[in-house]
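4.2 Preliminary Data

To establish feasibility before requesting continued support, the project team ran the inverse folding procedure on a target of 248 residues. The structure was first converted into the token representation described in Section 3, and no sequence information of any kind was made available to the design step. The complete token record follows.
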């Protein structure tokens, strides 16, 4: 069987497509295939399908995630998984039963769980990308006992003394830039995070900019519900919206 290699340019084009193309436009012009209560496919051609899945977060509500399937003979290229492993199992099984195709390559367009939440699905174990993606679970432990310095807040970069430290005992502490804070945090499966019982000192801060930063960081910690992590970068997010804060 001839293997198809996806070069970086092709992947970039597909990533842009998934990021900017409105699913509602596709759905109104192409055939819809529903394979479960929360997963449907938009058939672009015999070899290309957009998969759309619906998930729910208790603190946010329902939201949809989408990705792309490209088929070449008996192999398939999967761009992004649904949010959960169970949804991904259903999608991969449909590809095998209906298209007679096995996923040979998996490519996430970014590191949120709406793109790789189903990475641990057993049927993806043989994928070419699994060795590279396997660090996803391992790096979660690297969030603790590090001095994470704030480098970007609500899309704005700048110098600040603000930082955060996660302890292995489930406590969190840090500095808003003027006042210190401490509290608790819980990490859940698929990179969900929840902050609780956050308290801070009440020093008078005369710098208006510092006060604004403190107020915004406090707000971010209250609403953040998931995170992305690499050895050098921690990003706090809320659902699928733009990142709330970045730390290095």
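Position-by-position output of the design step:
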């Amino acid at each position: 069987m001839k293997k198809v290699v996806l070069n970086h340019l092709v992947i970039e084009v597909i990533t842009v497509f998934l990021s900017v193309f409105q699913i509602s436009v596709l759905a109104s012009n192409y055939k819809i295939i529903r394979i479960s209560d929360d997963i449907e496919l938009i058939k672009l051609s015999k070899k290309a399908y957009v998969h759309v899945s619906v998930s729910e977060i208790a603190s946010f509500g329902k939201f949809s995630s989408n990705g792309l399937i490209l088929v070449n003979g008996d192999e398939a290229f999967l761009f992004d998984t649904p949010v959960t492993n169970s949804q991904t199992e259903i999608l991969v099984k449909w590809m095998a039963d209906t298209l007679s195709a096995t996923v040979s390559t998996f490519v996430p367009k970014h590191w949120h769980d709406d793109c790789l939440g189903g990475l641990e699905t057993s049927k993806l174990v043989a994928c070419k990308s699994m060795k590279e993606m396997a660090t996803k679970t391992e790096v979660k432990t690297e969030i603790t006992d590090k001095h994470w310095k704030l480098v970007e807040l609500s899309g704005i970069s700048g110098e600040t003394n603000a930082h955060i430290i996660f302890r292995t005992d489930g406590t969190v502490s840090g500095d808003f830039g003027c006042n210190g804070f401490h509290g608790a945090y819980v990490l859940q499966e698929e990179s969900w995070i929840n902050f609780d019982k956050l308290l801070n000192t009440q020093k008078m801060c005369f710098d208006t900019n510092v006060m604004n930063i403190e107020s915004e960081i406090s707000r971010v910690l209250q609403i953040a519900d998931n995170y992305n992590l690499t050895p050098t970068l921690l990003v706090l997010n809320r659902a699928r919206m733009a990142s709330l804060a970045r730390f290095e």
